[in-house]
Amino acid sequence: MYSLKGKVAVVTGAGSGIGRALAQLLAAKGCTLALADINEVGLKETAASLPTPPLLQKLDVADRDAVYAFATRVKNELGTAHIVINNAGVAVSQTVADLSYEDFEWIMGINFWGVVYGTKAFLPMLTAQDDGVIVNLSSVFGIIAVPTQSSYNAAKFAVRGFTESLRHELDGTGVSAISVHPGGIKTNIAAASRFYVDPSGVSSRENAAAGFAKMAKTTPEQAAQTIVDGIERGSKRVLIGADAKLIDIIQRLMPVNYWKPMSALMRSMRK
Ligand SMILES: NC(=O)c1ccc[n+]([C@@H]2O[C@H](COP(=O)([O-])OP(=O)(O)OC[C@H]3O[C@@H](n4cnc5c(N)ncnc54)[C@H](O)[C@@H]3O)[C@@H](O)[C@H]2O)c1
């Protein structure tokens, strides 16, 4: 068991959803927290819900220099980092044909490069002390691909490949890397997305967010608990929710043709 008590934990995207629930659970486990988000209001709300004031940083994870400056600040003020959870993320729903490069670069900047910067900026502290865990948020959409999610899929498949490669590099050391693959989690992600169109032909953000709210069965608190259990147990990959476990099985059984049963499943879950 990896003990979290007295460890320094860094969480990006801590102003909402899974990141906020992670901050609350890690605080309860006895971690000292460094929390970052682009949304300062959400970040302060998270801080107010904690028993001890954390280190807070307004941060755009897509800004490489800012992420490295954040890592330096964590080292200067808290001494080091042990757990780094690259959680900040956004969504875009658009077909490949109509997807703008601006939206594609926006999501890759946050969901992929943000994870790379967060990993590389903090990794030297973890390897120097030969103790730590990098936790990178991929998705079930890093396991299967879905129409209108090409940019999100590209980022989340990339996070999975990046994290698994790092994991192998770290084999035999005191540092590990975990890729996390949540199914539908009841958070603000769909409502905050750049939404144009979804696979069922829904063309309004409100309808899509309502559909997502029906489909997402897991709470952020349950997601945080599963991630923290994974850190403590030394898991290599964490699947969150019954939907993620089912999707993982369908992908293994039908590695090429999974979309037919998957689309039927997603339609029934929306009802
Ligand atoms: N909710 C789901 O169903 C689900 C499923 C699979 C994976 N995920 C992943 O889980 C992670 C957390 O998402 P969530 O569901 O809690 O969503 P959320 O929208 O509730 O929280 C995401 C947080 O990231 C922050 N953020 C956005 N852009 C940022 C930037 N440039 N720099 C720093 N912070 C930024 C937002 O302000 C927000 O506080 C994301 O990586 C997401 O892709 C979520």
UniProtKB/TrEMBL annotation:
CDD domains: SDR_c (cd05233). SMART domains: PKS_KR (SM00822). Residues 7-188 form the Ketoreductase domain. GO terms for cellular component: membrane. It holds the Pfam family adh_short. It comes from the Bacteria. Keywords: Oxidoreductase. GO terms for molecular function: oxidoreductase activity. Transmembrane segments: none annotated. Gene3D superfamilies: NAD(P)-binding Rossmann-like Domain. Belongs to the short-chain dehydrogenases/reductases (SDR) family. PANTHER family: DEHYDROGENASE/REDUCTASE SDR FAMILY MEMBER 7B, DEHYDROGENASE_REDUCTASE SDR FAMILY MEMBER 7B. This is Acetoin dehydrogenase. It comes from Stenotrophobium rhamnosiphilum.
